[in-house]
Amino acid sequence: MIVIVGTGAGGGILARELAKNGKNVTIVEKGPYIESKEAFNYYNEYVPEIDLLATTCVGGSTIVSMANMVRALDEELHEYGIDLTNEYEYVEELVGVHELDDSHIGQGTQLFLDAAKELGLNVSKMPKAIREEDCIQCGKCAFGCPVNAKWSARDFVDEAVEAGAELISDAEVIDIILCNLEACGVKYVKDGKESVIKAKKVILCAGAIGSAMILKRIGLTGIARELFIDPFVTVGGYLKDINFNSEVQMAGLVVGRNFVLSPHFSTFINEDGQPIEAKDILSIMVKTRDDAKGYVSGDGFVNKVNTINDIRLLAEGVATAGFILEKAGVDPNTICSTVYRGAHPGGTAAIGKVVDSNLETEIPNLYVCDASVLPIAPGKPPILTILALAKRLADYLLMY
Ligand SMILES: Cc1cc2nc3c(=O)[nH]c(=O)nc-3n(C[C@H](O)[C@H](O)[C@H](O)COP(=O)(O)OP(=O)(O)OC[C@H]3O[C@@H](n4cnc5c(N)ncnc54)[C@H](O)[C@@H]3O)c2cc1C
């Protein structure tokens, strides 16, 4: 028996690969099984000190993702003897990564692409895992898809269950059971009642905060001292009747040396304190790779420091976004930014520090396979890299 804790980017594919290849798998997930369109109700509690976005439900944060799929950290992972070339090819095909058809590139996105090209920036369409034939271009990816047109890890959980895996949802893992100093199960709470599952292997896929909390509780050293979040702001302004709010979001991409930019609607953009109507906003997400200066405590308290370098990189991206917006026709006097946020927490159980290159901790049979293991901030969408790492771990576990 293999127990998988959490059903997000790491947990979903692991469950699928192991169950479909004949392993006895039990999946324990803290959140409920929901329809994708309900996902906006399952965002974690807002903490003003650190606006960190994540959801607790089957599928984890992938269910509110924009389905942006890019390869990240290739060279950095080579340093740990990890070459994901084959795994990337496998997962890209599995989730159907492709650039959207022009029919799904809205007017605002096209203005972004054209303006960035004119400025000589490194611009392309964003690789996505969205099925155009189902997508109604409502701009609501981050709320959960109303028509199930984008991939999420919930799809893989469904496949795992079809292949015989057991899913225990609404159940929070609170401890790892040890037998002779090796992991041999988990303790979880469901409906206020504690239960234990015995297992040969335990794989934590509870996300950078959730896995760190569990690892801290069992007293592993070096956990959650180097949290990163890939900080972002959205910068935008007034462009009459652009209707960008109802386009497929983040369908374009500019890759700079220190930041990535992508067209992304935000209602936080306003003019002199007065909200601008949603249909009149064109805005761009600026995302950077941050220094891993943050920590998570055993009870889930998160602290994150923004270094001078973080602010410098963000400012560089914001300035570039401003140039694009102006070239795209946005009134420069209205351009402003949202607060600093994060949606890619990671690094809390990094490869080379807490887990080895097979993602095993110093406790035999206890593995971590989620954004926790990324050794540095990707500064880009991390799902594809987590999927590839999980595919690699699944293949490794299937050998034994
Ligand atoms: C709005 C938004 C948009 C995003 N868009 C993109 C995008 O387009 N492309 C991209 O690459 N990335 C995107 N991301 C980031 C991406 O979703 C995350 O980086 C990724 O899902 C992290 O995977 P994970 O496996 O580490 O954790 P998660 O996907 O968060 O999964 C962790 C799971 O563990 C469960 N869990 C937590 N604690 C416990 C416990 N104690 N017991 C049992 N279960 C537990 C959680 O409920 C959750 O289901 C986005 C994130 C957000 C919030």
**Main beta sheet strand tally, sense and closure:** 8 strands, mixed
Low-confidence spans: none
Proportion of beta-strand residues: 15-25%
Distance N to C terminus: 12 Å
- Strand runs, count: 22
CATH superfamily of the largest domain: FAD/NAD(P)-binding domain
* N-to-C SSE string, H for helix and E for strand: EHEEHHEHEEHEEEEEHEEEEEEEEHEEEH
What is the correct CATH architecture of the largest domain? 3-Layer(bba) Sandwich
The whole-angstrom Rg is 21 Å
Q: Helix tally?
A: 8
CATH topology of the largest domain: FAD/NAD(P)-binding domain
**Overall average pLDDT:** 95
List keywords for this structure.
FAD/NAD(P)-binding domain, 8 helices, five-stranded parallel beta sheet, 400 residues, Glucose Oxidase, domain 3, alpha+beta, binds flavin-adenine dinucleotide
Please write out the topology.
Blueprint: E1 2-5, H1 9-20, E2 25-28, E3 51-52, H2 74-78, H3 85-95, E4 98-99, H4 107-118, E5 123-125, E6 127-128, H5 153-162, E7 166-168, E8 171-179, E9 182-190, E10 193-198, E11 201-204, H6 207-217, E12 231-238, E13 252-255, E14 259-263, E15 270-271, E16 274-275, E17 281-288, E18 294-296, E19 302-304, H7 308-327, E20 336-337, E21 341-342, E22 366-368, H8 383-398
Parallel strand pairs: 1-2, 1-11, 2-7, 3-21, 11-22
Antiparallel strand pairs: 4-6, 5-13, 8-9, 9-10, 12-17, 12-20, 12-21, 13-14, 14-17, 15-16, 18-19
The chain binds flavin-adenine dinucleotide.
Flavin-adenine dinucleotide binds near residues 53, 207 and 381.
